[in-house]
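Consider this:
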Amino acid sequence: MLGRHFEEAGISTTGVVFVKEHAAKVKPPRMLWIPFGFGNAMGRADDPGLQHRVLGAALELLERPTGPVLEEFPDDTAPEILFHASAAPAGNDSPLSPADELTGLRHYYERWVAQHDGRTSVGLSGVPQRRFRGVVRFLEAYADGQDRDVEGRPEGVPLAQYIRFCVDDLKAFYYEARMEQRPTSDGDQLHEWFWGETALAKLIVQVANRMEASDDPLTKSIPYGLAR
């Protein structure tokens, strides 16, 4: 939206976007879709060559006099940049249920928060982390095809969007717990652990599959962002 205001003032704009479907819907003046994980808009850390290519591709869009323009960054580099759910190792067979797995990580998560003066990326859903087991049970029911709502969903927030908030909170919980548990892990190792070894990751993929099969345009636009 800001881009449109700048464009009306005669200032050309460009940018990058994680979810192509969202950009296609809002029709920004110029936007480059990047196939990387959230939080890695320019690609993998400590890879200036790749980051310059991404930045250059976004800036090249300024040569387009009018929009909307939505280009794709070549995704042939994506597998080297960041682990993605679709590349999860076969045989992800955590012996725990997602709820029990989450409970087992709670101590590490709470220790992480305490050591960071209460700062955490958890909180988008508004559900206290001590009630995350209920969120997991809701996601299990949703993945199983049941038509259920989740307690605490704010009025006016569509169910599909709220599922996204819940999944983002759960992933943040896991990642922060893992960083406390394995403080030397780098970004790739965290992604490989989450998508390759946890029961929650399998559940998220199942939820994403159900959303992808939906006929509702909003619901169908959400799963790409869930499983990455």
